[in-house]
């Protein structure tokens, strides 16, 4: 790390975000970041896939898009189309898909197709931090709709749309994570999906469906995607292999009508997303996806069980949560006197990384005492130790939990 | 490809670029796009590298940055630091490097660190189309400095800086491709590099050095990078593996002082660039880079010879060019009556893709009769056939060349 005598700072635009802090490694107990379970990475199958696809098509790497065009590696698009039909009820072909560098690039591209500074969008009140931050940086207003056990509340959405309309505001889209919502892990029922689509059509506001956790439902049964249920085609659907295979492979996709994809492609000036990752994934998925994902779910389900057990043991009734039906995170409510932003800082100093509620919400008051705990990456032992340490920090800071592991502590 | 009954169009911002045209395959004779030679892709070595690195570190793919942090896969950063020291005279460590998804992402990130709408930057008058287009889309003014056989002209740069200063304009940077300039293939001498750095310091305008072709100099000898020569650290350096290994692997890098890297990282919200590509490259490069690159150069040099031979044969004195000292493209001047935008369209219709000069220049008049021909991807036979066909199109459209392959044609 070197610094410079040159005066760069006077050249930076005023709008530039604050500089990043130098990364110094992950926390000892890492409950953040959406990482996956290292033990379940299908290393041998990926090795076989890499070898086979490089042998067969390696020379095509000399071409920016391995000769399959700007929409991405065609065999992978074909797999995605097949998978979406089987799992999500979506009827589409490889032509309706653009492969992207993780669903984060999908967010950037779809956001840019619709939004400029001053626009308004509708979000679930609690939502993915990376999505919320993108809107903040773009200067787009986010209207948050509260969630209940069934996801985004349609009565509040209807009222918000009516209110915005009365003020002459047409939101650019309704962004939702309907299937294992991040961070609440709720799954929107099919009936509610119909209500959402009806409102979307009535108000002319498209739906932006982020489905990146949909493969990780313990039961293996998911409602059809909003994209599949829409009769007017007013849905943009995005997904990812980060959660189902491996996050360090930056491979996601956008499914949308050509009106949208042609705009996405005009904005996607990166000469294609990484081809080797797409090639290896395609080769792996066509053989192993349907067996790999259930194995992954089993492993994740077991880690969630350990996490809930550890929370019950360490926090007792102080930690409220619903058993998540899938995913890699648990949304936990602590008593009102716990300031999760402060807890997050103190815990991090003690070696435990958690997500404080306000960073995953557009309603800082509502989420003040809530935390998001990712359970896929740490081992069962690390989950137990980390939650014990978190309870200790929380107790010393807020007097909560008063009792843990059935032992009364002095506070 | 499906379309939608939903009215998306009324939601699009006015600033949205025009929709992309559906891709229908590459031209039969493809002289565009910066593709590489398929025959030289080191398939077997990449297979071995992929297998070894997946076996050893595959489980780390469960972590977004394979546990090496947001600056990118550490062993690859270490390789880049070593390579830059050996080849470009740059003294840096892995801490001074951020790996990115191809040098196109490097352009986006560095541009965003410095520029907003209305700003001014300095470019070589002829430059990479992808760089020029980025500035156009950002609404940044580009001042073009003419080139001669030694690259950007320092007398004109000095005058331009003085003129801008007199008008109260401090450009955000001087963007240059000093080592095998795109499209002119010139190499800026060490003496001229010193002049450029002096002007940069005198005017407080940093240098943005794009070095993506520097590995492809036939002689294997390159001048030190501007980054290496700067005494004040006022240079941002970017590079890529697209030209030296394979373009479909989207792996590039930024070398800069921490003042810049910390801003780049704050803007790089993609959860890391693809890790598998970085891992495979690192594993491959540490063993094979120094033998692979000379083999690639030999293959490219031979293709350039074929291209120049074909041009001489088909165009005679109508096609003027300098023997390029490296790279993957040739910048060709045709007689003044040739409108290269029109030639490009007619040639494409006939199955020959070339780059028209005005798309690679900020001076449409100067580049009106110039074309850029990429020679790495087509076979020797395709080069000969494609140039013959191009000559035929050019003759039928502009009466030039009047004679080709030593046969007088009716015009």
Produce a short descriptive summary.
With 411 residues, chain A is of the alpha/beta class. The first copy, chain A, has helices spanning 43-57, 74-88, 102-114, 129-138, 154-166, 190-203, 226-229, 258-267, 275-315, 340-349, 380-398; strands at residues 29-30, 97-100, 120-124, 141-145, 147-148, 151-152, 174-176, 207-210, 235-240, 252-255, 329-333, 352-353, 355-356, 370-374, 403-404, 407-408.
How is this structure best described in words?
Two copies of one chain form a homodimer. Chain A has two domains: 26-41 and 291-408, Aspartate Aminotransferase, domain 1 (Alpha-Beta Complex); 43-288, Aspartate Aminotransferase, domain 2 (3-Layer(aba) Sandwich). Chain A is globular and about 60 Å long. With 411 residues, the first copy, chain A, is α/β, with parallel strands linked by helices. Helix content of chain A is 40%, strand content 13%. Chain A is built from eleven helices and 16 strands. The first copy, chain A, has a seven-stranded mixed beta sheet with strand order 2-10-9-8-7-3-4, sandwiched between helices. In chain A, strands 11-14-13 form a three-stranded antiparallel beta sheet. In chain A, strands 1-12 form a two-stranded parallel ribbon. Chain A has helices at 43-57, 74-88, 102-114, 129-138, 154-166, 190-203, 226-229, 258-267, 275-315, 340-349, 380-398; strands at 29-30, 97-100, 120-124, 141-145, 147-148, 151-152, 174-176, 207-210, 235-240, 252-255, 329-333, 352-353, 355-356, 370-374, 403-404, 407-408.
């Amino acid at each position: 790390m070197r610094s410079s005598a040159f005066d760069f700072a006077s050249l930076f635009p005023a709008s530039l975000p604050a500089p990043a802090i130098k990364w110094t490694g992950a926390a000892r107990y890492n409950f953040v970041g959406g990482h996956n379970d290292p033990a379940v990475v299908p290393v041998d199958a990926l090795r076989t896939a890499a070898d086979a696809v490089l042998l067969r098509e390696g020379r095509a790497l000399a071409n920016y898009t391995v000769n399959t065009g700007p929409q991405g590696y065609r065999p992978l698009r074909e797999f995605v189309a097949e998978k979406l039909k089987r799992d999500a009820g979506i009827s589409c072909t490889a032509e309706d898909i653009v492969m992207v560098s993780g669903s984060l690039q999908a967010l950037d591209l779809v956001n840019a197709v619709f939004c400029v500074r001053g626009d308004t969008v509708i979000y679930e009140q609690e939502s993915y931090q990376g999505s919320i931050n993108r809107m903040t940086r773009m200067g787009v207003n986010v209207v948050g709709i509260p969630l209940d056990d069934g996801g985004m509340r349609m009565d509040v959405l209807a009222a918000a749309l009516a209110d915005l309309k009365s003020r002459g505001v047409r939101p650019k889209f309704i962004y939702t994570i309907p299937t294992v919502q991040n961070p609440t892990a709720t799954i929107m029922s099919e009936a509610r999906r119909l209500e959402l689509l009806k409102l979307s059509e009535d108000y002319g506001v498209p739906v932006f469906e982020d489905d990146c956790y949909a493969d990780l439902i313990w039961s293996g049964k998911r409602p059809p995607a909003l994209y599949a249920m829409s009769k007017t085609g007013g849905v943009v659907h995005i997904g990812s292999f980060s959660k189902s295979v491996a996050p360090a492979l930056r491979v996601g996709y956008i499914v949308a009508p050509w009106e949208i994809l042609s705009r996405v492609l005009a904005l996607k000036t990166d000469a294609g997303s990484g081809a080797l990752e797409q090639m290896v994934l395609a080769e792996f998925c066509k053989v192993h996806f349907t067996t790999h994902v259930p194995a992954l779910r089993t492993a994740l389900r077991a880690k969630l069980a350990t996490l809930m057990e550890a929370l019950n043991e360490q926090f007792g009734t102080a930690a409220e949560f619903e058993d998540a039906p899938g995913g890699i995170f648990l949304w936990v409510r602590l008593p009102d006197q716990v300031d999760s932003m402060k807890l997050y800082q103190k815990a991090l100093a003690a070696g435990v990384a958690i997500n404080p509620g306000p960073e995953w919400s557009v309603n800082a008051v509502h989420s003040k005492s809530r935390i998001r705990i990712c359970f896929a990456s740490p081992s069962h032992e690390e989950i137990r130790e980390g939650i014990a340490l978190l309870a200790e920090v929380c107790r010393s800071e807020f007097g909560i939990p008063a009792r843990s592991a059935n032992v009364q502590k002095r506070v």
